[in-house]
Amino acid sequence: MLVRRLIARLLDWLLVLVVAWPLVHEPVLLVLCAVFYDALLLRWNTLGKALVGLRVVGPASGLGLSRVLARTLITTALPGAGAVLVLTGLGWREPALMAGLGWQQPWVVIGEHVGVGSAGWLASLLLVGGLVLLVLSAVESLDLRGTRTWHDRRAGTAVVRLKAGTR
Questions:
Q1: Are the C-beta atoms of residues 41 and 78 closer than 8 Å to each other?
Q2: Which terminal Cβ of the chain has fewer Cβ within 10 Å, N or C?
Q3: 39-85 per-position pLDDT tens digit
Q4: What are residue 159's DSSP bridge partners?
Q5: What 3-state DSSP class applies to 54?
Q6: For residues 38 and 144, what is the distance between their CA atoms, to the nearest angstrom?
């Protein structure tokens, strides 16, 4: 079940990356698109989960807004924020958002690295913070008990395998 869940998550992130990156060109906005995609489709099914035959279910009362938001923040926003912090800590900048706000400097072209200079401690702090978020996200996802990980227990949800005819 864990491998299916991981494949479904990777397929969903890949779909968001392929669709949203040409439109937004900004890692922060890409994470927001992933959060929106996950939250919007959680009550039905994301494409990744549908392809591997999984579905998120709630209690008899269903998946309310609070359950959807709690699960989405833990499963999508936390690792997404970690990835953005790691990229920022490594010196990767994308000018689209800042240029849209009228700020041209010190933002540089995508993929270029900014010199460490006096703000080297900040880059290190961002890198470490991002890695901590990614590790926490991985650890909580591996805490699998039956069909429920830590985020499922917190949000009151479970992931179940669909029967072949119910996809």
A1: no
A2: C
A3: 888 778 888 888 999 888 887 767 788 888 888 888 888 888 888 88
A4: 56
A5: strand
A6: 20
